[in-house]
């Protein structure tokens, strides 16, 4: 069964940066559009960035210009570079493909606070 393992989160001050990684244990990752999602306390999970099999990217308005999604199919890994972080970026971050979803991983906590 495919597994997702997110890492790279932590506590960072406003304006800081983090790079998240997601190792995807699924055959032929290169065939899937992948995305990063986040869920803040008391809120629904939201999609913040996607990357297609061809490398095209898309971002939610809330992170556009600050976050960059990338992928390395040879390493079965998807990345999210997060710059100029804001307190409202505080959430648990997950990666997954589009519907139908793989089983969700545990996510990685990102806390932006001074």
Supply database-style keywords.
114 residues, mainly beta, four-stranded antiparallel β-sheet, 48% strand
Describe how the helices and strands are arranged.
Layout: E1 3-7, E2 10-12, E3 18-25, E4 34-39, E5 46-51, E6 57-59, E7 67-72, E8 77-82, E9 91-97, E10 108-112
Parallel strand pairs: 2-10
Antiparallel strand pairs: 1-3, 3-8, 4-5, 4-9, 5-6, 7-8, 9-10
Q: C-alpha Rg, in Å?
A: 13 Å
Count of individual beta strands: 10
What's the average pLDDT? 95
Largest sheet: 6 strands, mixed
Detail the poorly predicted runs.
none
Q: Count of DSSP helices?
A: 0
Cα(first) to Cα(last) distance is: 40 Å
Strand content: over 45%
Characterize the overall form.
Answer: globular
Helix content: under 10%
Structural class: mainly beta
Spatially, the strands of the biggest sheet line up as 2-10-9-4-5-6
What is the string of helix and strand elements? EEEEEEEEEE
Oligomer classification? single chain
């Amino acid at each position: 069964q495919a597994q997702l393992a997110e890492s790279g989160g932590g506590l960072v001050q406003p304006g800081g940066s983090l790079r998240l990684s997601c190792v995807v244990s699924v055959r032929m990752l290169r065939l899937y559009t992948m995305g990063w999602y986040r869920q803040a306390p008391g809120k629904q999970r939201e999609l913040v960035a996607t990357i297609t099999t061809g490398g095209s990217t898309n971002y939610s308005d809330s992170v556009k210009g600050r976050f960059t999604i990338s992928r390395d199919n040879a390493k079965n890994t998807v990345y999210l570079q997060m710059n100029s972080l804001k307190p409202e970026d505080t959430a648990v971050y997950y990666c997954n493909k589009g519907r139908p979803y793989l089983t969700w991983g545990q996510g990685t906590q990102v806390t932006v606070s001074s």
